[in-house]
């Protein structure tokens, strides 16, 4: 079978590999769609902190059931998505029902080979039926679930003023789910192109480009009190540090993006505001089911989220262009 392999930073190609052999308790999936995200771009660029090369990338997956245990609820040919966060089931986090931050987690496409390949075998518990969705929508479930999980971590309510920093796919997802929770949402980014798309196509009304006028804009949006909950989805250490100053007294700061940097902040300001600092990692099945429900209902404008389609075998040539033109790329989906 064919597989897309990143063997080292800035080196990616197509390999022929043996097809996997399914074990009892696993499901073999024929991959049909793979979404590309910041993690894949970081892997290609050598900036992913949890990865060893070579690696088959791809964790935003949609496919069809090819093989499954007799008597399993899934049917051959059924459209599914995959929860790519494979937990150990026994560690301290798993015992607390937090498999998304399992001590020994294996994330498809990061710690172990992912779905940029014709077939993949995964534990049955990682396979989620998506009846009623299109293959493209099924490939969007994972990245949207990351945003949904962050909003759940932030305990967002209709009483909150929420600020989302970063208008990439994760940030836009966070903004959408904050809106669903009833919060007053503001989205900021360095890219006016991304902000315009989020406003005009996705429906995030209040956006502002980072620049000289940002401070006054944020003060006006928050009556000078700043924001009850702030989310960072930038993947930039300096932006994360700046975000502490946007949190209102008594507010929460949710770090969604992952960076290699050591983050510093003012302890007096942190304590004065009694800031709650939260990390948000991955997503759980609960988040996946919530996203699937909102995709089925049409609440999520999935056609607007997908900006690029291409053949998966073109990934080695496409990935450089996608990285170079990220201002115009919200979600790129490769077709197998």
Key words describing this protein structure:
Rossmann fold; seven-stranded mixed beta sheet; 2 domains; 336 residues; Quinone Oxidoreductase, Chain A, domain 1; 30% helix; alpha/beta; six-stranded parallel beta sheet; 18 strands
Output the helix-strand order.
EEEHEEEEHEEEHEHEHEHEHEHEHHEHE
The structure class reads: alpha/beta
The N- and C-terminal alpha carbons lie at a distance of 12 Å
Number of helices: 11
Radius of gyration: 20 Å
Number of DSSP strand runs: 18
The CATH superfamily name of the largest domain is Medium-chain alcohol dehydrogenases, catalytic domain
| CATH fold category name of the largest domain | Quinone Oxidoreductase, Chain A, domain 1
Q: Judging by the overall fold, what is the CATH architecture of the largest domain?
A: Alpha-Beta Complex
Taking all residues together, what is the mean pLDDT? Answer: 95
Q: Helicity level, as a percent range?
A: 25-40%
CATH class of the largest domain: Alpha Beta
- The percentage of residues in β strands lies in 25-35%
Could you characterize what this model shows?
The chain is of the alpha/beta class. It has two domains: 2-145 and 283-335, Medium-chain alcohol dehydrogenases, catalytic domain (Quinone Oxidoreductase, Chain A, domain 1, Alpha-Beta Complex), CATH 3.90.180; 155-279, 3-Layer(aba) Sandwich (Rossmann fold), CATH 3.40.50.720. Helix content is 30%, strand content 28%. The protein contains eleven helices and 18 strands. Strands 3, 5, 6, 9, 10, 17 and 18 form a seven-stranded mixed β-sheet that branches. Strands 13-12-11-14-15-16 form a six-stranded parallel β-sheet, with helices on both faces. Helix 3 (135-153) crosses helix 9. It is globular, with a radius of gyration of 20 Å. The mean pLDDT is 95.
């Amino acid at each position: 079978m064919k597989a897309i392999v990143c063997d080292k930073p800035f080196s990616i190609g197509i390999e022929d590999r043996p097809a996997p052999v399914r074990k009892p308790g696993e499901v073999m999936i024929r991959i049909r769609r793979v979404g590309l995200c910041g993690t894949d771009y970081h892997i290609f660029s050598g900036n992913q902190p949890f990865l060893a090369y070579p690696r088959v990338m791809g964790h935003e997956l949609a496919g069809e059931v090819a093989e499954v245990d007799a008597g399993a609820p899934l049917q051959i040919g059924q459209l599914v998505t995959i929860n790519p966060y494979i937990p150990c089931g026994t560690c301290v986090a798993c015992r607390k029902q937090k498999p998304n931050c399992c001590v020994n987690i294996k994330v498809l496409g990061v710690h172990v080979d992912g779905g940029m390949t014709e077939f993949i075998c995964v534990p049955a518990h990682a396979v989620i039926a998506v009846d009623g969705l299109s293959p493209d929508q099924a490939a969007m479930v994972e990245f949207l679930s990351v945003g949904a999980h962050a909003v759940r971590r932030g305990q967002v309510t209709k009483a909150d003023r929420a600020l989302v920093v970063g208008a990439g796919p994760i940030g836009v997802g966070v903004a959408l789910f904050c809106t669903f929770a009833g919060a007053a949402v503001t989205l900021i980014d360095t890219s006016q192109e991304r902000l315009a798309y989020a406003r005009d196509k996705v429906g995030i009304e209040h956006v502002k480009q980072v620049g000289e006028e940002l401070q006054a804009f944020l003060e006006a949006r928050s009556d000078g009190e700043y924001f009850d909950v702030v989310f960072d989805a930038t993947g930039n250490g300096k932006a994360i540090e700046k975000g502490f100053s946007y949190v209102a007294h008594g507010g929460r700061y949710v770090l969604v993006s992952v960076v290699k940097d050591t983050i510093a902040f003012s302890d007096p300001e942190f304590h004065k505001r009694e800031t709650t600092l939260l990390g948000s990692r991955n997503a759980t099945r609960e988040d996946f089911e919530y996203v699937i429900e909102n995709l089925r209902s049409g609440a999520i404008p999935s056609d607007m989220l997908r900006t690029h389609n291409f053949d998966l075998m073109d990934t080695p040539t496409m990935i450089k262009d996608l990285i170079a033109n990220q201002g115009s790329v919200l979600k790129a989906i490769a077709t197998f």
